[in-house]
Amino acid sequence: MSENLGKKILSLVGGQDNITNITHCATRLRMRLANSEIAHKNKAKIESLDGVISVVEKAGQFQVVIGPAVPQIYDQLIENTDLTSSENEHTAKEENTNWFLKLMDVIGGIFTPLLPLFAGSGVFRGLVLLATQLNWLSTSSSTYHILTVASTAVFYFLPIMLAVTAAEKFKCDKFVAAAIMGALIMPEFMKLMGSTGNGTVVHFFGIPLVLMTYTSTVVPAILATWCLSYLEKWLRSWIPTNLQLLFVPLISLFVMVPLTAGVFGPFGVYVGEGISNVINWLMNLNGWVAGALIGGVWNIFVIFGLQWAVNPVMINNISSLGYDYIVPLTCAANFGMAGATLGTFVRTKDKKMKAYSISALLSIFFAGITEPAIYGIGIRYKKPLVGAVAGGAVGGAIIGGMKAKAFAFVFGGLTTLPAFVGKTFIPYCIGLLACFVVGCVVTMVLGIDENNTEQAADKSDSVQPVSDESILSPISGEIEDLTQAHDPAFADGSMGDGFVIEPSSGDVYAPFDGEVTMLFNTKHAIGLTSDNGVQVMIHIGIDTVKLNGEYFESFVKQGDKIKQGQKLLHFDLNEIKKAGYDCSTVVIVMNTKDYQSVELLNAGKNDHGSATLKVQV
């Protein structure tokens, strides 16, 4: 690997004056840039550098994937610059230039923890509706009512849930935030409106308050919690430490409940209703055009993380109206990508890509997750992305023109079809079929250029492999193929073959005899080299680098010799999950290129120490 790689990257991204913030995790440089166009134009040049695996532009960050050598490259890049010494100045600059992307990051952080619950509740609600339409379940039965409350509770109590996730994002007391929004949906508060409903005026110490119904709302909880974060910081700045336990929550509740009821609540409700009205007006004006536009660009939105700007609108529509027009259009984009993925499977001659395509296709069909297909196929080959956009636009026009409705917030896949059961269900299915067929046909016609998609491999000096070897699972848990990894930089296999594991415990053991060749200072990732030359990286969780080592403990250091089954690391699985992080762990053979094959032996539930990978010279 070139000794000047760091400086080459610095030059190609526009120099230190163009970098507003730079950090690194175990595998990649993460930069926020004042002018991202400079780096974007030089993206191909950066990817071709010796030592760079790939480049990912996501959520306002320009990420250069390097691998275990990233700490050294980071040091090279910042050497003789003031990037670290002027971090606060750069951060301030970033806040002025990337406010929209920062907003997307905030919205994503608030809603991401709730997405599995939305998905599960959505399918649950769809199955209940399907059962009633097939006359399997009477709407007057107690069973129906119990199933209804079970499947819709997430929306009724949505303000409280959002208050909790927003508090985690804004770094304030989540229980106080939950209590504030809980107060506004208590029966006693609802009784104040009497028969008048929304718009009722009451008085709090002589101050008039306009009352609204806050169950199922989105914006008021976010605004109130954001305000609480500033109030809480201010209170802690002047209340003595030994009195904060009592008086910070007391004063917060006293101030924020009436303030939210009188200001943030009504404003948030009106904003939510206004956005919903605009969307519905647009769909009624010309659903064909609106459907083609949203269905066509949604996959592009996902690439840049912009879907977070629209997700709250869909959730608000479901909560307030009971249906939404946009969710079906996002599903159109999913099936357009699915068709493009099948087209790639047909056209590719690479056996590994064929297997990856099937895995990505199943991910869309059964989970509504498109990222593996978008990043591993669409961005990699470019032309399948064109097919996906075309498919989403054509099918989206049909779905939008026929005004198909979703009755729950779900991700578009075969398993979520019940969420669309109603008068527009057949047009919705026809639209999805059109998306899939067009996406597939366009991709097959355009073809894929596999000769121009190979990314520069990491050519750093390494131990030459000498024999076949079995890699044992370092952690107990549920093992899946690497294509199922939640981080596209791992899932597309560009860093090497391996597997992903959903841990059932927080202990990490040595998968072979060898040496610790890299231990990240936050202890969330470790690099090992076996006595036979296999280089393995174990990366615990997604974005867990942000924890700065909290909840992680190491029992070895870089350079230590290790024995198979030796305990290397421990991480507090429960606390990391409570902090809102995905704990899925990837195990990658970093020098995959040195081997004839790297084969996953056993998927499913495994204990640590079980044979999981076979590497063959």
pLDDT averaged over residues: 80
User: What portion of residues is helical?
Assistant: 40-55%
> Which structural class is indicated by helix and strand composition?
alpha+beta
Largest sheet: 8 strands, antiparallel
Number of strands: 20
Task: Determine the strand fraction and express it as a percent band.
Answer: 15-25%
Number of helices: 21
Domain PTS EIIC type-1: 105-458
Domain PTS EIIB type-1: 3-87
Protein name: PTS beta-glucoside transporter subunit EIIBCA
Domain PTS EIIA type-1: 487-591
Q: What does this entry look like structurally?
A:
Keywords: Cell membrane, Kinase, Membrane, Phosphotransferase system, Sugar transport, Transferase, Transmembrane, Transmembrane helix, Transport. Pfam families: PTS_EIIA_1, PTS_EIIB, PTS_EIIC. It comes from Lactobacillus kullabergensis. It is found in: Cell membrane. The protein is α+β, with helices and mostly antiparallel strands. The chain folds into 4 domains: 93 residues, Gyrase A, domain 2 (2-Layer Sandwich); 167 residues, no CATH class; 162 residues, no CATH class; 148 residues, Glucose Permease (Domain IIA) (Distorted Sandwich), CATH 2.70.70. The protein has 21 helices and 20 strands. The strands form 5 sheets. An 8-stranded antiparallel sheet has the order 15-11-12-13-17-9-8-19, with no helix packed on it. Helix 15 runs antiparallel to helix 18 and helix 15 packs parallel to helix 19. The longest helix is centred in the middle third of the chain and has 64 residues. The radius of gyration is 26 Å and the shape is globular.
